[in-house]
Amino acid sequence: MRSLTRGMVFALAGLCLIWQAEARAAPNAPAVASGVETCAPGGPCAHPLPVRVVIVTMFEIGADTGDLPGEFQLWKERRHLDVRIAFPQSHHDLYYDPASQVLGMVTGMGTARSATATMALGLDPRFDLSHAYWLVAGIAGIDPADASIGSAAWAHYLVDGDLAHEIDPREIPKDWKTGYFPLGKNGPNDPSPPDPQGEMFELNAGLRDWAFALTRDIRLPDDPGIAAARALYTDQPMARRPPFVLKGDQLAAMTFWHGKLMTDWANDWVRYWTGGKGEFVTSGMEETGTYQAITYLDRIGRVDKSRFMVLRAGSNYTMPPPGFTAAQYLLRENQGFAGMHAALESLYLVGSRVIDELTTHWDHYEKTVPK
Known about the structure:
12-stranded mixed beta sheet; Rossmann fold; two-stranded parallel ribbon; 18% strand; alpha/beta; 16 strands; disordered N terminus; globular
């Protein structure tokens, strides 16, 4: 009972394509510059490759270019990530643009893959990540109370939805709202949260606010398909808005969930772990794993955790519109989410504005984190 809506992937290509998609090389991929091609993956490297921005995506569908895009394809094609770098210690090879010094990665889906991929990259001596900014850019479920599909949200809080106790709802006491409650607590009615042990992370609010201010006025893609989908939400004015950029927090968990009761749970869970400061807006799977690795790497000076950003765009709503049951709408969505294409375009448009600013004015941002 604790999952996240990330399922457009399943509808478009089938789950097997996601888990089986491994590193693919372009037929004539250029060689890596600066001598990195002579360094073994994970081995010592005399001249590490400088990285200004790491674009973190979670999945691709089929090939990396030229077919139905997943989260990585638009970045690779449009930002000239043409240099392939072998990365056998993880899910997918890396791609790099020597001109902008931007590195693109595909972690694989789920917290286990995202955490291990991030740690593998952070510990690889072939890369100088000491001043790199990290941009997680992925599709998500989106709460119709806060935004519409195609909208893109910058996160401040990352909340984990998996670390917990659980009792089947059919067996819970009458005074319990849910059978799902935090570890170390005496049921869901135990009010004060314990100290987070991986259940909640707070990102650099100044950097998030800077990124939002830079992108808030971007006009995001709209089309008749997503307009028709959002028109069904007659009781949710924010769900009917054309796509827009907003600030909103992210809940990460490993099960694909859907429905009003689950959305209520997600809002309660984020509110609980953030002491009422956070607002659940987007659902995903990976962020708490990715950022946990970043915090460990920060301790040894391999990365700077204050340079980490999360941008999620809604490919689907987390609950059905009036007239549909949760099961009906979930199965309908699995046939093809109307917001998938718009979400991918939104991620690219919004994220690119930030990347362009950072790389164009690197003489400033290399040493000074914006706020």
